[in-house]
Amino acid sequence: MSELKREYDESLTADNNIQYLTFTLADELYAVDILRVKEIRGWEQPTLIPNAPDYIKGLINIRGMIIPVMDLRLHFSIGSKECTSTTVVIVLSIKQGAISRTMGIVVDTVADVVKVAESALTSALPVKGEVSADIISGMINIKKKTATVLATEKLFELKKFTIGN
Which residues form the CheW-like domain (predicted)? Predict the structure, then answer.
């Protein structure tokens, strides 16, 4: 068991807290479970994939591993933005059943790592918006802001995430 995983498990058992990595997209705050985050990388132009959906920016090579990169702004239909020095790729480990994948998401900025009581995760309102309710785990309050917690396993649902169709 990795040191990070062990520390996380101990903190979860001790006080039922969950750690999230928060980031921004179009001035809105989002979060993902820190255990899904493999690394955070500065923006680099990925290799384009012919016939890929517009929200798939392409492929990047991370130490010999080729991973697809998704632009969440385009996937959530909240407009495009030119990548800047603060644009980052969050590399996530996604597990769906017996299948594990590594994928990246492009976000405007990384904000912080926060520790939130498990009970503080509230259900998302059943409203119809640009972000599908299927990929929202819930909402958390961080200081005076509300962050949308993404269900990363739904974000990269393998049935929908097929390049070339």
Answer: 17-161
Residue 6 class from Cβ within 10 Å (0-12 exposed, 13-18 middle, 19+ buried)? exposed
Residue 29 lies inside a defined structural domain of this protein: yes
Any domain includes 164: no
- CATH code for position 39: 2.40.50.180
The answer to whether residues 47 and 66 touch, using CB atoms and an 8 Å cutoff, is no
Q: How many domains does the chain have?
A: 1
